[in-house]
Amino acid sequence: MPNPSAGHARRGAAAAGSMAAVADRPRATPPDPPLTDGVVALRRAVPADRAGLLEDGRDPEMQRWTNTPDPYGDREADEELAWFLSCWDDPAKPLALVVADPATDRYLGAVVVMRDRPAGIVELGYGVNPNARGRGVGTRAVGLAARWAFAELGAARVEARTDPENLPSQRLLAAAGFTREGVERKSRVIKGRRHDMVCWSLLPADVGAAPPPAG
Questions:
Q1: How far apart are alpha carbons 197 and 108 in whole angstroms?
Q2: Pairing state of beta strands 157-162 and 121-128?
Q3: Mind listing the domains of the chain with CATH numbers?
Q4: Are strands 95-100 and 41-43 parallel, antiparallel or unpaired?
Q5: Sheet of strand 121-128, all strands in order from the earlier edge strand to the far edge
Q6: Distance between CA atoms of 122 and 156, rounded to whole angstroms?
Q7: What percentage of the chain has pLDDT greater than the value 70?
Q8: How far apart (Å, rounded) are the C-alpha atoms in residues 66 and 128?
Q9: Quick one: CA dihedral 85, 86, 89, 95, positive or negative?
Q10: Which residues contact 215 (CB under 8 A, 6 or more apart)?
């Protein structure tokens, strides 16, 4: 159930924001202790996550829906892990949160938080490890990440996008409380071709969070 935004951010094709906005963006701090609902946890990446990233990159569903390099091998996993580890030190980069089992710390997937959007808007990309699908991991992780974006990043709106044919990803977002807003025609490039995308949104009021100050 990966979505295209996950592939864009994790594989180097996220939308670009203005340099002025990047310069003014405060450095974010990874959650410490990890965010958790008791079933999944969101934390900063660690070197042991490399094996999970390699599994994700080689997964046919990740390849189908995102700009994951094909083939995806050891070099690509090393590069992605390096980016996951360094992103919190660079305000220009999207922020990578690893989804982990809170009991074992085992890698279950990732959520990427993209801030190079109009002021007050963040976009989430996500992917669930093939071995962790079908049990609500992605829904829980996206919900935790959205609430963190409202509370810690001051987001007024959280967005996500899915291919119209990616039904598991759409079910994930609906279960997490997102509203389906409509289809953006040919809005994203996946593997060199433009695709329609369904835009989904979540507002603080949707999850009982306080809205950020206006202005």
A1: 25
A2: parallel
A3: 4-154 (3.40.630.30)
A4: antiparallel
A5: 35-36, 41-43, 95-100, 107-114, 121-128, 157-162, 193-202, 179-190
A6: 8
A7: 86
A8: 13
A9: negative
A10: none
Task: Name the amino acid, one letter, at 183.
Answer: V
131-134 LR contacts (CB < 8 Å, sep 24+)? 131/55, 132/99, 132/108, 133/1, 133/168
Amino acid at 20: A
Strand partners, 162: 198
Cα distance between residue 56 and residue 54, in whole Å: 5
Average pLDDT over residues 160-174: 97
The pLDDT tens digits of the residues spanning 38-69 come to 999 999 999 999 999 999 999 999 999 999 99
Report the distance separating Cα 185 and Cα 165, nearest Å.
Answer: 14
Q: How far is CA 20 from the centre of its chain?
A: 23
- Which pLDDT belongs to residue 14? 39
- 83-134 confidence digits (pLDDT tens): 999 999 998 899 999 999 999 999 999 999 999 888 899 999 999 999 999 9
Q: Where are the beta strands (DSSP E) in the chain?
A: 35-36, 41-43, 95-100, 107-114, 121-128, 157-162, 179-190, 193-202
Residue 139 backbone class (left: φ over 0; alpha: ψ -120 to 50; beta: rest): alpha
